[in-house]
From TrEMBL:
Gene3D superfamilies: P-loop containing nucleotide triphosphate hydrolases (3.40.50.300), RecF/RecN/SMC, N-terminal domain (1.20.1050.90). It holds the Pfam family SMC_N. The gene is recF. This is DNA replication and repair protein RecF. It is found in: Cytoplasm. Belongs to the RecF family. Keywords: ATP-binding, Cytoplasm, DNA damage, DNA repair, DNA replication, DNA-binding, Nucleotide-binding, SOS response.
Length: 394
């Protein structure tokens, strides 16, 4: 699948932009702050319903406007689709496919992309929440039904935490404990599904990550990843750190449910004291290692950058193989400035056969020549040349 045309209305600094795109590499060049990243951010939002830069949708609506529209014409073999989303400031977002309304959460069924940006260094160096989000976004792209499981789990978790706070405030009455047991079963059911899905995903990602890391770095540093499951921990940590004794390569669905229930029973008193759910997929982590040492804390800047990029290239490869939407659009936002010349060349070789690659760069010569076939220059928030034409307010 590839995007043949991107249209923006009141998105970020663009009042309007019409951007024809081609298969293969598409390079957007311009100084910092001109709107390059805004273009690719819009496509990332179409496939994940989120931004790699901000947590709030409101920031993507142009100042002074009430809504932003992202519209993309997609080509998948002989099939064409017009996919669009309207991001609203004071109401729920809306989405359409071929002018027919759909729920926004259904958009990943029609379009997938993998975006790598400097912020993704946090996948290696940041907190577990970022790595959980990385896995869950990829899960939804591979299996859209998981969006419902994740949303339901988050809802049950919030309601259970509210009940724990109420029980603590009132001195823990018997009726509240019986109600808590009802929520426990729902939490275990949904949480076990999510843990099982993440575990299977990590197993499929592992060989792809190892291969992608070696391709980028030019040598084998034994890049590995594994699950750290809070339900297997003997403690009850009240932070977002990886439980030291919770490592698991794989766990069956039946064993997951049993371990989850046992952990909730064991930590009942601690949860009532702290008024928070202490175990479950919301407290798990994805452990990244190089040369059998945790990448977080031990990997150099270059190694961390290569590992984060390998995670995204591995994701693209998995989507390529398993997704019904075909090849994902690969987006490389300001990547080449951080790589030395050898890594730039190796990355260019690694993506040469991807159906469509979108690249942003502040310096034209930072990008290898084989990725410059279709170059669009952006200045002052306006698309000024190349095969693309459009207008925006900067």
């Amino acid at each position: 699948m590839f995007v043949s045309h991107l249209s923006l209305t009141d998105f970020r600094n663009y009042s309007r932009a019409e951007v024809p795109l081609e298969t293969g590499p598409n390079l957007f060049v311009g100084s910092n702050g001109q709107g390059k990243t805004n273009l690719v951010e819009s496509l990332g939002f179409l496939s994940t319903l989120g931004s790699h830069r901000v947590s709030s949708d409101q920031a993507m609506i142009r100042q002074g406007q009430q809504a932003a529209i992202v519209r993309a014409r997609l080509q998948h073999g002989e099939r064409q689709l017009l996919v669009e989303v309207q991001i609203n400031r004071g109401a729920a977002n809306k989405a359409q496919v071929n002018r027919s309304a759909i729920k926004p959460r259904e958009l990943p069924r029609y379009f997938s992309s993998v975006l790598f940006a400097p912020e993704d260094l946090a996948l290696v160096r940041g907190e577990p929440s970022g790595r959980r989000r990385f896995l869950d976004e990829l899960l939804v792209q591979l299996s859209p039904r998981m969006a419902g499981v994740i949303a339901d789990y988050d809802r049950v978790l919030r309601q259970r935490n509210t009940l724990l706070k109420s029980a603590r405030a009132s001195g823990v009455k018997g009726s509240q404990l019986s109600t808590l047991e009802v929520w426990d079963e729902r939490l275990v059911d949904l949480g076990s599904q999510l843990i099982e899905a993440r575990t299977g995903l990590v197993a499929r990602l592992l060989p792809e990550v190892a291969a992608a890391y070696e391709t980028i770095a030019g040598e084998d540093h034994h890049a590995t990843l594994s699950n750290a499951l809070s339900i297997l921990s003997s403690g009850g940590e009240d932070d977002d750190e990886t439980p030291s004794d919770a490592r698991s390569g794989a766990i069956s669905a039946a064993d997951t449910a049993v371990a989850f229930r046992n952990s909730l029973e064991r930590l009942r008193r601690s949860e009532l004291d702290r008024a928070v759910t202490l175990v479950g997929p919301h407290r798990d982590d994805l452990v990244l290692e190089l040369n059998r040492l945790p990448a977080r804390g031990y990997a150099s800047h270059g190694e961390s950058w290569s590992f984060a990029l390998a995670l995204k290239l591995a994701s693209a490869q998995l989507l390529r193989r398993e997704s019904s939407t075909g090849d994902p659009v690969l987006i490389l936002d300001d990547v080449f400035a951080e790589l030395d010349e050898k890594r730039r060349g190796r990355l260019a070789s690694a993506v040469h056969d991807v159906e469509q690659v979108l690249i942003t760069a502040a310096v034209h010569d930072d990008v290898p020549e084989q990725l410059r076939a279709h170059t669009v220059h952006i200045s002052g928030g306006t698309i000024v040349d190349g095969s693309t034409h459009g207008e925006s307010d900067g």
